[in-house]
Amino acid sequence: MAGLANERARVLSNEEVGPGLHVLSLESPGIAGSIRPGQFVHMRIPSLESHVLRRPFSVYAHDADAGILDILYQEVGSVTKLMPHMSDGFVELIGPVGNTWNSAARRALIVGGGVGAAPLFMLTEQLVASGSAVDVVLGAQTEKALVCRERYERLLGRNPECATDDGTYGRAGFCTSLVEERLREGTFGDGGPYEYVAVCGPVPLMRIVAGLAADAGVPCEVSMEKRMACGVGACLSCVVDTVDGKRRSCVDGPIFDAQEVVW
Length: 263
Fold this sequence. Notes:
Layout: E1 5-18, E2 21-27, H1 29-34, E3 40-44, E4 55-58, E5 61-63, E6 68-74, E7 90-97, E8 107-113, H2 121-129, E9 133-140, H3 149-156, E10 161-164, E11 171-172, H4 176-185, E12 196-200, H5 203-216, E13 220-223, E14 239-242, E15 245-248, E16 255-257
Helix pairs in contact: 4-5
């Protein structure tokens, strides 16, 4: 929890990017300057100041020099359905919260399902900047929900491999078939195997990818984004069952070694 800040962040934009999907850009210099891939923020939503509990949001992207954070969110409940109306003003953030992806791999496979593609983007940026070879697989229900695809394409200089449940873009069906193929082929152009897999998305997706990575003998990390109340490890509402007992997603995670999770 070192470096945890409570910051008043200015709303810069709140753009609808897909059906029920929005990117909220915030000016938050302190958090933007210190956040690392995989970490998140706790937000107090305007008009809900009377609520004691904040809401956790993964950070999609950041610009440390400009002091800007991007948060991809989906309208899934009463709170997030209020958020599209946040066009200006300020929000209160606590962050950066949680641990970070633990990879310095030279060859990595990144797997994002739905909005789970967002918490992996900063990791992919880090790997690309370090000279690592990176493959990206994205999955969503439909083409319009693949809202992170273009940003990954610009970063990689090529299209990420995609699958949609309804077949409107890329492969028809779940993206796990693409992951299985990548791990089975398991090599880049220089003949080297994957050294690392990172996955974020629905629990069934992460469980399947974790199993595929284990079968291929490739280390895998997952982001366990549980419902959180306090966000600081006190309430025990976000526990994850692991081989070492119950761990708190907010402070012991959200990133876990996939082999340590009891699925």
